[in-house]
Amino acid sequence: MSQNSLINDADCLQNNLYCLFLKQLPIAAALLDGEMKYLLTSQKWLSELGLEGQEIIGRSHLEVFQQFCEPLSEAYHYCLMTGVKLCVEEQFQHYGATGWRQWTVHPWYSKAGVIDGVILVAEDVTHHKQAELSLREEHKKAEEAMFRLAAIVESSDDAIMSKTLDSVIVSWNRGAERLFGYTAPEIINQSVTMLIPRDRIGEEPQIIEKLKRGERVDHFETLRQRKDGTLVDISLTISPVKDTTGKIIGASTIARDISIRKQAEAALRHSEAQLRQQATDLELTLIELKRTQTQLVQNEKMSSLGQLVAGVAHEINNPVNFIYANLNPASEYIQYLLELLQLYQQHYPNPVKQIQKKTQEIDLDFLAEDLPNLLSSMEAGAERIKNIVLSLRNFSRMDEAEMKSVNIHEGIDSTLIILQHRLKIKQDYPEIEVIKDYGNLPLVECYAGQLNQVFMNIISNAIDALEERDQWRTFADIKQQPSQIRISTEMLGSDHIQIRIADNGYGIPESVLKRLCDPFFTTKPVGKGTGLGMSISYQIVTEKHGGSLQCNSIYGQGAEFIIEIPIRQSKQIDLKISQMTNDK
Fold first, then answer.
1. What is the mean predicted confidence (pLDDT) over 554-571?
2. What are the two backbone dihedrals, phi and then psi, of residue 10, each rounded to the nearest 5 degrees?
3. Could you tell me which residue, 12 or 35, shows the higher pLDDT?
4. Which end of the chain is more exposed for a tag (fewer CB within 10 A), N or C?
5. Average pLDDT of the residues in 296-313
């Protein structure tokens, strides 16, 4: 193309729409001929490409930019041949920074309809390209994060799964396969109810309702069923899953096997229960032993102490032997449990809040430190009890007491004779009157010596109460209103008798009345009573004779003791055997 024709064509282009497009609109565009030389440019073209003040008309693209962009050249020639618009991106450096430019190649038709060149539009797409690259980088990071998350999920020892709000399982990791026995193909698209035992099926609707409200289920302990039908203790943590709009579409679940922990807790509870029972038995044994020792020292005015001691010693010996034989195994078991507890603390230093709270409440460190000392003390106590029981049995030899049919009135009378020195008149006090109101009683099958001791204790206490009151009265007052003890007997039906022993003293306060038969409880000063008399009497009547011992008293009006026992002890034995048989 000659210079003149170029000028003529340029003049003609002034009336062409492309020329108007280039001049009037703020677009960075230029017109190139078939040899890729510039015929016309917009001002924005020169400004954005840093070419202001340069003469570029008639120069080639390579001369202007001093670099060769092969894709742009290919697009240029392709557009000349085919008339197809093409876009090419080019990277460039501007003041040390990297940028991107998009070249858009449009075909330019002459008046004759022939493609004579191209219209080249340049657009700086750096920001768009940077945003695109940044988005790609974010996508890449997200993919890497998802990959790492998937790897963590797959390698987790916990069962991790997800489900829809219809309880359909949609994901299943290897931990779930190990815990429940189902492979992913077997369980995915199946209902989670496959894992729930029948008696726990009501839990799932409640969980779903909480998830729909956006609530999280934390450390929910329950039972689930494996593929082989066995049950496993698990702890569930379930969180709602939302889509991009925030709508809850399902849930993710972490299930942890807590079977070992549950077994350890059950074993610990069982061991604690055993220890508590053994401690209770030991405490009761010690109380019984203390009572027996005190009874032996004080003699409590009993005429048949040896027989009683023999019986007590025999009864104590069995539980003491049981406790003593189990102390060493108990110590070993507790040591195992403490070691297991230490392992749990090492491997699970951050337990759930409920366990932390309970640990603080019971002062676990102190318990672990003090428990071995407690067992040592129990062992020493049990050894002491064994030695004492052996001494008591050697002392009492055999229980020589026999159950005989006796005249109850004779026993009461003999007791009164023994206490006569306390009933008769003294220098400062008149005689204490004893009023007998005996009924017609048959011979009663009983331990006569022990029952006489009951009479002795009750009548002695009545004398003490009367003497205590009379020391504040004058001789004349006592003579006018004498101190009295009333003893009456009668039949109750055909197989029981009743014995009433009453006095007209001050009576017994209600607070004392409630504790009257407690071991070692006494209102007497030191040296005048051990607090065992009424406790032993209660045992003799209720345990030895299958009867009852009651006390009625209104303070200020005296007290009355009521003894009821069966006439024949063999009937009571037959009744007990029948009850034991029915219980079995």
1. 84
2. -65, -40
3. 35
4. C
5. 50
Query: For domain 156-257, which CATH number applies: 3.10.180.10, 3.40.640.10, 2.120.10.30, 3.30.450.20?
Result: 3.30.450.20
Contact yes or no for 431/276 (Cβ under 8 A): no
Strands 484-492 and 433-437: what pairing? Answer: parallel
| The pLDDT value given to residue 522 | 57
Domain ranges of the chain: 3-124, 156-257, 261-396, 404-578
Q: What are phi and psi of 222, to 5 degrees?
A: -155, -170
3-124 and 156-257 in the same fold: yes
Cα–Cα separations (whole angstroms), residue 303 to 140, 256, 452: 100, 69, 9
What residue has token string 């997200």?
142
Q: Please, which residues have CB within 8 angstroms of residue 183's CB and are 6 or more apart in sequence?
A: 172, 177
Where residue 575 falls among pLDDT bands split at 50, 70, 90? Answer: low
Contact 540, 454 (CB under 8 A): yes
- Token pair of 537 as six digits: 């009497």
pLDDT above 90 (res 566): yes
Task: Report the percentage of the chain scoring pLDDT > 90.
Answer: 7
Q: Which CATH number describes the domain made up of 3-124?
A: 3.30.450.20
Q: Which of 428, 436, 320, 439 is nearest to 380 (CA)?
A: 320
Contact 544, 450 (CB under 8 A): yes
Instruction: Give the separation between CA 514 and CA 537, rounded to whole angstroms.
Output: 16
Whole-angstrom distance, CA of residue 236 vs CA of residue 234:
6
Q: What is the pLDDT of residue 482?
A: 85
Q: How many beta carbons lie within 10 A of that of residue 54, not counting itself? A: 11
CA distance 222 to 200: 8
Write down the residue that tokens 């995915």 correspond to.
188
Q: Which tokens belong to 344?
A: 């749990």
Q: What is the pLDDT of residue 542?
A: 87
Whole-number average pLDDT of the chain: 77
Please check whether residue 542 is in contact with residue 564, taking contact to mean a CB–CB distance below 8 angstroms: no
Q: Environment class of residue 159 by beta-carbon count within 10 Å: exposed (0-12), middle (13-18) or buried (19+)?
A: buried
CATH homologous superfamily of domain 404-578? Histidine kinase-like ATPase, C-terminal domain (3.30.565.10)
Mean pLDDT of 74-90: 87
Tokens of 337: 């449990």
Give the number of residues written for the chain.
584
Overall pTM > 0.85: no
Strands (E), 22-96: 29-33, 38-41, 86-94
